[in-house]
Amino acid sequence: MANIKSQKKRNLQNEKRRIRNKAVRSELKTRVKSAERAAATGADDAQELHRLAVKKLDMAASKGVIHKNAAARRKSRLAKRIAGGAEG
Phi first, then psi: what are they for 42, rounded to 5°? Predict the structure, then answer.
Protein backbone atom coordinates (compact mmCIF):
# COMPACT_ATOMS: atom_id res chain seq x y z
CA MET A 1 0.00 0.00 0.00
CA ALA A 2 1.21 3.48 -0.80
CA ASN A 3 2.36 5.91 1.90
CA ILE A 4 1.57 9.10 0.01
CA LYS A 5 -1.93 10.47 0.47
CA SER A 6 -2.40 11.39 -3.20
CA GLN A 7 -1.32 7.92 -4.27
CA LYS A 8 -3.79 6.32 -1.85
CA LYS A 9 -6.52 8.43 -3.40
CA ARG A 10 -5.35 7.55 -6.91
CA ASN A 11 -5.47 3.82 -6.02
CA LEU A 12 -9.06 4.16 -4.80
CA GLN A 13 -10.06 6.04 -7.97
CA ASN A 14 -8.40 3.44 -10.17
CA GLU A 15 -10.22 0.61 -8.41
CA LYS A 16 -13.59 2.34 -8.83
CA ARG A 17 -12.90 2.87 -12.53
CA ARG A 18 -11.73 -0.71 -12.98
CA ILE A 19 -14.96 -2.06 -11.52
CA ARG A 20 -17.10 0.32 -13.60
CA ASN A 21 -15.20 -0.50 -16.81
CA LYS A 22 -15.52 -4.22 -16.10
CA ALA A 23 -19.29 -3.85 -15.80
CA VAL A 24 -19.48 -1.88 -19.06
CA ARG A 25 -17.39 -4.46 -20.94
CA SER A 26 -19.55 -7.28 -19.61
CA GLU A 27 -22.69 -5.43 -20.73
CA LEU A 28 -21.14 -4.98 -24.19
CA LYS A 29 -20.49 -8.70 -24.55
CA THR A 30 -24.03 -9.52 -23.43
CA ARG A 31 -25.65 -7.06 -25.87
CA VAL A 32 -23.54 -8.21 -28.82
CA LYS A 33 -24.17 -11.87 -28.05
CA SER A 34 -27.94 -11.37 -27.77
CA ALA A 35 -28.01 -9.42 -31.05
CA GLU A 36 -26.06 -12.17 -32.85
CA ARG A 37 -28.28 -14.89 -31.40
CA ALA A 38 -31.45 -13.02 -32.42
CA ALA A 39 -30.14 -12.56 -35.96
CA ALA A 40 -29.16 -16.23 -36.23
CA THR A 41 -32.58 -17.41 -35.11
CA GLY A 42 -34.43 -14.79 -37.16
CA ALA A 43 -36.15 -13.24 -34.15
CA ASP A 44 -38.57 -10.35 -34.62
CA ASP A 45 -36.58 -8.02 -32.35
CA ALA A 46 -33.20 -8.62 -34.05
CA GLN A 47 -33.02 -5.06 -35.39
CA GLU A 48 -33.83 -3.60 -31.97
CA LEU A 49 -31.19 -5.75 -30.27
CA HIS A 50 -28.65 -4.72 -32.91
CA ARG A 51 -29.50 -1.06 -32.28
CA LEU A 52 -29.01 -1.52 -28.52
CA ALA A 53 -25.66 -3.26 -29.04
CA VAL A 54 -24.44 -0.43 -31.29
CA LYS A 55 -25.65 2.12 -28.74
CA LYS A 56 -23.70 0.42 -25.93
CA LEU A 57 -20.57 0.24 -28.11
CA ASP A 58 -20.85 3.97 -28.88
CA MET A 59 -21.38 4.83 -25.22
CA ALA A 60 -18.39 2.74 -24.13
CA ALA A 61 -16.22 4.47 -26.75
CA SER A 62 -17.40 7.93 -25.72
CA LYS A 63 -16.61 7.18 -22.06
CA GLY A 64 -13.17 5.86 -22.95
CA VAL A 65 -13.83 2.28 -21.85
CA ILE A 66 -12.85 1.05 -25.32
CA HIS A 67 -11.08 2.92 -28.12
CA LYS A 68 -13.28 4.57 -30.74
CA ASN A 69 -11.69 2.53 -33.54
CA ALA A 70 -12.29 -0.67 -31.57
CA ALA A 71 -15.95 0.31 -31.25
CA ALA A 72 -16.16 1.03 -34.98
CA ARG A 73 -14.52 -2.31 -35.81
CA ARG A 74 -16.85 -4.24 -33.51
CA LYS A 75 -19.93 -2.45 -34.90
CA SER A 76 -18.82 -3.25 -38.44
CA ARG A 77 -18.23 -6.92 -37.69
CA LEU A 78 -21.54 -7.18 -35.86
CA ALA A 79 -23.39 -5.62 -38.79
CA LYS A 80 -21.68 -8.04 -41.19
CA ARG A 81 -22.59 -11.04 -39.07
CA ILE A 82 -26.19 -9.91 -38.76
CA ALA A 83 -26.56 -9.13 -42.47
CA GLY A 84 -24.66 -12.11 -43.83
CA GLY A 85 -25.44 -14.86 -41.38
CA ALA A 86 -22.60 -16.98 -39.97
CA GLU A 87 -19.60 -15.68 -41.93
CA GLY A 88 -17.13 -13.16 -40.50
Answer: 75, 35
